[in-house]
Known about the structure:
- The protein is α+β, with helices and mostly antiparallel strands and 873 residues long.
- Helices cover 14% and strands 29% of the residues.
- It has an eight-stranded mixed β-sheet with strand order 40-41-46-45-42-48-39-53.
- Helix 6 runs parallel beside helix 8.
Amino acid sequence: MATFSLGTSGSTxxxxxxxxxxxxxxxxxADLAAFSTVYMLVETExxxxxxxxxxxTPVKISSLNDYKALIRVGNSTxxxxxxxxxxxxxxxxxxxxxxxxxxxxVRVGTPNQIVELEFFPSGTKLNSTxxxxxxxxxxxxxxxxxxxxxxxxAGDGSTGYTSSGEWLGVPVTIPVNYVAGDEVNNRKIAAxxxxxxxxxxxxxxxxxxxxxxxxxxxxxDLDPSLNSQNSYVTISSSTFGGNLSVVxxxxxxxxxxxxxxxTYDIENIVGQQTNLERVPQDYTQCxxxxxxxxxxxxxxxxxxxxxxxxxxxxxxxxxxxxxxCESNSFKWxxxxxxxxxxxxxxxxxxxxxxxxxxxxxxxxxxxxxDNAIYEWTGTDVSPxxxxxxxxxxxxxxxxxxxxxxxxxxxxxxxxxxxxxxYTINSTNGAQDFLFSLDTDQYWPVxxxxxxxxxxxxxxxxxxxxxxxxxxxxxTFNLNGTEVYVIAAPYDVAVSGEYSLxxxxxxxxxxxxxxxxxxxxxxxxxxxxxxxPTLPNGIVYVQPAVGSSALISYADPYWDIEVDIxxxxxxxxxxxxxxxxxxxxxxxxxxxQDPTETYRLNWVSRTIFNASTSIANYTGxxxxxxGAAVFAVDTHSLVSGQKIYFTQPVVQTSGSVSSNLxxxxxxxxxxxxxxxxxxxxxxxxxxxxxxYTVGSYIGIPSGYxxxxxxxxxxxxxxGGGLTVIAPMELLTIxxxxxxxxxxxxxxxxxxxxxxxxxxxxxVANPTTSIYLNNSSLILGNEQITPYGEDLSVSPxxxxxxxxxxxxxxxxxTPVVANAYCVPTVDQFFQPEAYMVSTVEATIPxxxxxxxxxxxxxxxxxxxxxxxxxxxTFP
Length: 873
């Protein structure tokens, strides 16, 4: 008897636990099969001709030399590629241990016809009422694809048809706005389309019976050098060598968006002429089609499948092999390693899904936890859920950040899971059709229409006695019924696409769609009014007494899991000892103590009259003779610090004028290096070299200074809380997923007058330091969304600019700002910037905020390492 293992010796890696026992010449009863034959699925180099070694056909060999003859390419009989070489080693090992063994090798084939669907995020969307437009964050756009004549929908088709049975296709929620030229951003759109189409093919039984997904993903993952923004799905026929037809269509239905043809490209690939990466379905297809007709009884082994596929792939191949061998037509034995035993393989538990830690527990119900079924025998448990809102890119993130900000008390457990439940309220007013939701949760902006169950509306409740526009005075009781929530934009001009928890109701999907469109056309639900323009089907209460009810949907719309100390969960507990803020858009950084806290220093002061604040030195120190002294009460500058001027200081002698100091503009930077004489006086040098040798600017003899004003401001200085001498900050290195805090309590929110001690005044220009995605362009939509305001509850809200203080000589250190660095799977840029603005003292052209003109200067980049060592420039 010969015993050998495929995978446990040094020459055959990757197939653990596969053993063969060969017993040639064994005496057995006549009615007992010998099982002396082994069928081994193998792979070869692509150049091996199919005329010599066909696909999906068992070929009997009696020695390693026979196998070499089958796989020979030119004079080479030993493959170079990893998997073909593993197949060769398995055959070699077989004959090394069973010299008279009966081995049948089956070459796994690549389908000859493969269709690749390529998706372009630059494509446009269309519905029956609007012109074609670019893809925007929050859009639900349907991909309309027919495969072998079958209209593609996901799963049971519940999301692929209208309520009247019209085909919509596969819904795709667009995650971000399309931005031309921003490949990193646009790849998120492409990935969403590919994932939705691939899932639909695999979950639709009718389509899956004729075709399967070989692969899907981003083109950039296949070849990063292309920097492509596109994605792809490759499809093959479920029958080896079968025909495959894929057609994309554009049939918009009502207000539902569909992708136009410029989103797709279809390419036919001849699989047997192309080096394609093998997928588990190639093996399952081979097992299903390779053994037609009479075959000797034996073992079926697939060692190469276990060497290259993940657990799911190995399980798929193992299950196919087992099903084949169990057939009464064969009654073979399969040796497989399909992964760990899953309790969901038991029929009665096959529909169970893993229970989320933050999900509710109901007495008497069973739950799947860690591959085991448990019955909850305690009282009902419903953890508090944090709120979460999506950012609509291209708009200010302020609403999303604030609606995702949550104060969490000490020792409280909270869930990062959509509760799916909202309290809806009616109010007596001019808009009795507009209902508000409690603000413990915020309705997702990416869920504009949703079917819900309304409950808790007892007798006398407004929702038990509603009217519907277009149906006269008839009243309806909504308690216990399914209705549609329409979360239309509340005020497009002010809040963009966000509903601000103001919703409309309808009793049918068609009415809901029409009502949503009407609200958008009106500029928001706040602009709707009773009258002929109010759309039919809208639910209203008249007169309203003011009532509440509960609306809910079954499946959570969002679920966020975080990793803490090596454990992953969507249920977290505050163990800090105090109330803290948790912003669900800033995970995981928002949960952490700061990786580093920086104390920042930045000075801006206004010289209202240069002729009275600047004069040549009159003291006795030789180092400053002839230097122009700037008299600025309590200036807070340090020697070596750079400052800039918003306007030049002009010096004049007769008809000759020149600049004592030059201005810094958006295009030209003119720094000056400070040398401190006292806390109220300093001189400046025009270059680092001059500063080093003590050569400072001075007012030439006979020249007088202009009385015009100017503002000077410094470059930012910073350092840790224990650093005595802060350093100039150009780049602040950061690590993704970490929190950093900033103490800006020594920075004034006004450029205080230089001639007096710092104090607030109406005449002082205002100053700000914005956390911005651009160092040049300012605007609400450019504010980086990852700042957190620590100064007020909920201690993690919107932070467009650092918290600055009123001018004073009595400063108190306060850490009031945080920045949570985004992870790579969040929307991010490689850098964010601290950008200062100073209100100008004279009119300027540059008006970044559309308000009073500002001088703007880049302060510091919040740079994130690409890996542990290099940083972005």
